[in-house]
Amino acid sequence: MAGKRSIFEEVAAQPQKQALPAGGMIEQGARGARPAIRIWLALLFLMVAAMIIIGGLTRLTGSGLSITEWRPLTGAIPPMNAADWAAEFTKYQQIAQFQLTNATMTVEEFKLIYWWEWGHRQLGRAVGLIWALGFVYFLIRRQIPAGWTGRLLLVGGLGGLQGAIGWWMVYSGVDSLRISVAPYRLATHLGLAFIILGFLGWYVLLLSRSEAQLMTARRGREAKLFSMSTGLMHFAFLQILLGALVAGTDAGTAFPTWPLMNGSFIPSDIFYVTDLDGNVLPAWHAFFEGQGMTQFMHRMAGYLLISFGLVVWLRGRKSVYRETRQAFHAVMIMLVLQMLLGIYSALTLAQLHVAITHQLGAILLWVLILRARYLSQYPIAGSIRKGTA
């Protein structure tokens, strides 16, 4: 025990005070490799977006059924000689699409559609490989931030499920009298692609700031605006699914007029759907396979979406944060552009370059809604002095 200290003792002789703990302790031990993981997920995001575009081009060129088998590993090797090409072409000749619509196709013409489908599947394999390599790398090095392992596994799991659903979709056109894939399976395939894209985009946004910064930003969250933007995100997703049904039924080429549908607000035969043998199907089939019904639903949902988007924008433009206001301005602009692209696509009988631009517009709108929603939850505080408030 230390003795009593004299009142004449030098101040310098006093024991040093204990150092205060350094700031930022909330980040210690849980930071991981956030910037590197963000780059990895951003790469996957771009690859999935490319998958959606190439998938759209594959459908528009009628190439989706050119490969009639699902071989996840050996299918990566394309035909290497004339005998291989002849074998693949023979398989294609066995399905209804060839027999009913492409009976005069040559091997050289077949190669064109084959490469589209092969390229689409190959990119899917590349996405899976990049995910697996990145996940194992960060896991072995123990650089995954706390709480992120499950999120990263979710992305990989959804990617694997997407591959299976892709074959489930193709199989509907291979093992039947259909000349194309089932529209509802196409919608499922596209819908899951946008879900994966949404998770990747959201994770990239979350990793753009530290956990401490996110916790601080959340104190200023605009709960009502976040809720409304979440509703807008779900509404946009529904419209994407309806767009897939329109694509799957080729309804985009059936009504090249606007605002009426070939002279009528509601087509007179909206519930009339037949199979390839001419048999009339029950009315409920019209919601998934009828050109009139799917086109009508897509148009009506589009009007409702832009109306609700206007309501959300009116709320978003009043945000106290400049970044948030600008994000909702961008969403509204893209909503209007996407509606105009949809109208132009119908008027031009869904020409390839117009239709694929419309699909690209859906991706851009999806990303912009995600960003606006993120900034509603985690706003960026501005500075009056710097003019960023």
Care to describe what's here?
The chain has 389 residues and is mainly α. It has 2 domains: 32-208, no CATH class; 218-389, no CATH class. The chain contains 12 helices and no strands. α1 packs antiparallel against α4. The longest helix has 34 residues, at 107-140. The model is unreliable at 6-15 and 19-30 (pLDDT under 50). Pfam families: COX15-CtaA. Belongs to the COX15/CtaA family. Type 2 subfamily. InterPro entries: COX15/CtaA_fam (IPR003780), HemA_synt_rhodobact (IPR054616), HemeA_Synthase_type2 (IPR023754). It comes from Pseudogemmobacter faecipullorum. Keywords: Cell membrane, Heme biosynthesis, Iron, Membrane, Metal-binding, Oxidoreductase, Transmembrane, Transmembrane helix.
Residue-averaged pLDDT, rounded? 91
Quickly count the domains: 2
Uncertain ranges: 6-15, 19-30
- Cα-to-Cα separation, first versus last residue: 58 Å
Structural class: mainly alpha
Anisotropy-based shape: flat
Oligomer: single chain
Largest sheet: none
- Please provide the ordered H/E string of secondary-structure elements: HHHHHHHHHHHH
Helix content: 55-70%
Count every helix, treating DSSP H or I runs of 4 or more residues as helices: 12
Name the beta content range. under 5%
Number of strands: 0
State Rg. Answer: 27 Å
Subunit structure: Interacts with CtaB.
Catalytic activity: Fe(II)-heme o + 2 A + H2O = Fe(II)-heme a + 2 AH2
Pathway: Porphyrin-containing compound metabolism; heme A biosynthesis; heme A from heme O: step 1/1
Family: Belongs to the COX15/CtaA family. Type 2 subfamily.
